[in-house]
Design brief:
alpha/beta; single chain; globular; 155 residues; four-stranded mixed beta sheet
Length: 155
C-alpha cells in the first residue's frame, strides 16, 4: 500500500480483472479520526463478530449485480471523478453473557468480552477488497480507538 498525502493506494490480487489497485481517500470533516493501515483478514475476522446483525455475507455469496456494482464503484476514477472514500470504522468491546447447563435445573452464567468492528460506512468496500486479494487496507478510526485497533488488526 502506498500513500500520496491523503490518497492511499491498495494493491489487489494479480488475478483481479481490469485493475490491480484501488485508490482510497480520507473522508473529509473527520478531524478526530486517524487513518490506520490494517490487515484485511484480521479486519474481516472482527467484522464477523458484530453482534448487531450488520455482518455481510462473503462476496462469493452476493448476487452478480451487487458484485458488479461494487466492482465498478471501486474502479479507477475518471478525469472528473474523485477516488472512493476509505471505510470509517469503530473498534468495540462488549460483555456477552452465555448460559451453560451446569446441572439438570441449574445454569451457570459465563461472561466473556467480545471485540468487534462496527462500520460508519465501508462494509461493502471492505468485503470486496478482501475478496479482490487486498492484504492491507487503510481505514479511518476515532483517535480514542486507534490503539485497540492497532493491537488487534495491525499487519
Amino acid at each position: 500500500m502506498s500513500q500520496d498525502d491523503e490518497l492511499f493506494h491498495v494493491q489487489l490480487g494479480k488475478d483481479h480483472p481490469n485493475y490491480q489497485s484501488v485508490a482510497l481517500r480520507r473522508r473529509p470533516g473527520y478531524v478526530n479520526y486517524e487513518v490506520v493501515e490494517v490487515d484485511t483478514e484480521k479486519l474481516i475476522h472482527y467484522s464477523n463478530q458484530d453482534i448487531r446483525g450488520y455482518v455481510l455475507a462473503p462476496v462469493e455469496d452476493w448476487q452478480p449485480a451487487k458484485r458488479e456494482g461494487i466492482f465498478c464503484f471501486l474502479a479507477p476514477p475518471g478525469p472528473r471523478e474523485q477516488p472512493v472514500e476509505m471505510p470509517v470504522i469503530s473498534f468495540n468491546e462488549r460483555d456477552v453473557v452465555q448460559y451453560e447447563r451446569k446441572w439438570r435445573f441449574f445454569k451457570k452464567a459465563v461472561v466473556y468480552r467480545l471485540k468487534y468492528i462496527g462500520y460508519t460506512n465501508g462494509r461493502h468496500r471492505t468485503r470486496y477488497l478482501y475478496f479482490a486479494g487486498a492484504k492491507q487496507i487503510p481505514v479511518m478510526c476515532h483517535i480514542s480507538e486507534v490503539d485497540a485497533l492497532k493491537a488487534h488488526c495491525a499487519p
